[in-house]
Model the fold of this input.
Amino acid sequence: MAGERSGGRGGSAPGVAAGDRGATVIADRVVAKIAAQAAREALDAVPRGGSAPHATVVVHHDAARVRITLELDYPSDIGGQCGAVRHRVTERVRTLAGMDVPEVSVFVERLHSAHARGAAQGRIR
Done:
């Protein structure tokens, strides 16, 4: 009959809307950038002389496991800052990438002491 398709190549699935076909894949590195930016947003500031937060991510289906590495000033509320980072990263990845975030591991790589920094600036060689 005229107007019928044989279901071969080039045809579309009958009864399936165009927006429901296919898949969206977001690369791990894109989710890592979202997570690193969210960690920066959660912190007051990057310690002077320190590095910005860095993220690594493993995405499996619609879930992202995130590892954030960061540096903090000392003394400070380390637990509070890490909790704020976890919360912000989870929120932003869920909102921007549409992924669940069952795990956010925060690793504090280095503490920057304001006292040590001040003492080092006062030295004359």
